[in-house]
Design goal:
By secondary structure, this protein is an alpha/beta fold. It has 13 helices and 15 strands.
Length: 406
């Protein structure tokens, strides 16, 4: 799979940008704050329909749009080829008047081949793997960052996962609201049963998907990590679900480090669902006191270990960079394995973060994918043979110009 063209309108720094792409590697270079990362951000948006850097999607609209313009629209249009078939994916970012008091409403919509589609139907149409220095937050950040990491992978490779994730979050919001209402005004606890069933139905799919993808990621990342550490470190992913469906009698959570990932992944969805419903019912009174749902995929944790050392707690910067690189190798291979297509690889200023051994390994990954976009502020980080072999484009103040080879 590869992107053949990209069109941006009122997106970040670009009022208008039209780019055509070859099938292989494109290197964008220039000073900071010129628009290099924005190009990668737009490509990634076509895969995940959310920004990897903006706090909210409204920030993606070009800030130079006139204040008195009532309707502001930004567009990302990507034409890509997948399985020999050409397709067009468009995302519109719309800020429009809302009511008579001068208020505004932001919304986004998507079209596949000119037809409006729900976002949940479009995950997996275009796949991308992004590698940015700030992604180290999956090690140092909170559990929600690590859950989001898994969910973003699964939305691209597992049909229906995004729908179950959306429905699960909706059901949890409703259940929590009901818990607070029951806590304030009282009422029979069996009112929770409907939302228990909804949570369990969709949460079982999330757990099944997460355990499966963690197993595959670990197996794929381990070999790369051994090579990058010269055989000195063994990489491991430790999935810690808040619910252990293999231990349904006691309602206890097994200790971290001995979670039955393989056992959970061997269960079918109905078995996980049944165990989930029982545990939710058992916790009715506790959840009523909390005013929130205390167990489920929204409370899962994922830890990254090297030689049994938790990288989030004790890992060095070098260890985290190596682990992140191993994970990105694994993501690329996983998407190829699950979808039959190579994802587009997006590398933003990563060469400065790596030593020569890891740089060489990363550049070797570029030979495996069909297409990659790479940004840099310093062309001297790349061998002249690399610059000659691949297309180089200069980005300056929102203008992109192709440069001669070498």
């Amino acid at each position: 799979m590869h992107l053949t063209s990209l069109s941006l309108t009122n997106f970040r720094v670009f009022s208008r940008l039209e780019l055509d792409f070859p099938r292989r590697v494109i290197l964008f270079h220039g000073a900071n704050a010129q628009g290099k990362t924005t190009i990668l951000e737009a490509v990634a948006f076509l895969a995940l329909f959310t920004s990897f850097s903006a706090g909210n999607d409204r920030q993606l609209l070009n800030f130079n749009l006139p204040d008195d313009e009532p309707l502001k629209v930004g567009r990302i249009v990507g034409e890509f080829e997948r399985g020999g078939r050409k397709q067009t994916l468009e995302v519109r970012l719309i800020l429009e008047p809302n009511g008579s008091n001068g208020g505004t409403r932001f919304r986004k919509e998507a079209l596949l081949n000119g037809v409006n589609r729900r976002f949940g139907e479009l995950y997996g149409q275009f796949n991308a793997v992004s590698f940015l220095p700030q992604m180290a937050k999956i090690f140092e950040g909170g559990p929600s960052d690590r859950r989001r990491y898994l969910d973003e992978i699964l939305c691209q490779i597992e049909p229906g996962y995004s729908k179950h994730l959306l429905r699960y979050n909706q059901a949890m919001t409703r259940r929590n609201a009901l818990l607070k209402r029951l806590g304030d005004y009282g009422g029979p606890l069996d009112q929770l049963d409907y939302w228990d069933a909804m949570l369990a139905e969709h949460g079982a799919y999330l757990m099944k998907g997460r355990t499966g993808v963690v197993e595959q990621l670990e197996n794929l990342a381990r070999g790369s990590h051994l090579r990058l550490t010269d055989g000195k470190e063994v990489f491991k992913l430790e999935y810690q679900p808040s619910l252990d469906p293999t231990n349904s009698n006691s309602g206890q959570i097994k200790l971290p480090g001995v979670q039955p990932m393989a056992e959970v992944s061997s269960l079918d969805v109905e078995e996980i669902k049944s165990s989930f419903i029982k545990e939710l019912h058992r916790r009715h009174k506790d959840d009523l006191q909390r005013g929130s749902t205390s167990i489920g995929p929204h409370r899962d944790e994922l830890r990254f270990l090297a030689n049994q050392i938790d990288l989030g707690d004790f890992g060095s910067r070098g260890q985290m960079r190596t682990a992140l690189l191993s994970l990105k190798f694994a993501e690329v291979d996983l998407m190829k394995l699950r979808t039959g297509e190579w994802p587009v690889l997006l590398l933003d200023e990563v060469m400065a973060e790596l030593d020569p051994v890891r740089r060489e390994a990363l550049l070797g990954l570029l030979d495996r994918v069909e297409q990659a976009f790479v940004t840099t502020t310093d062309l001297d980080m790349f061998e002249s043979s690399f610059l000659i072999a691949h297309e180089v484009r200069k980005v300056r103040q929102g203008v992109v110009l192709k440069e001669a080879s070498g």
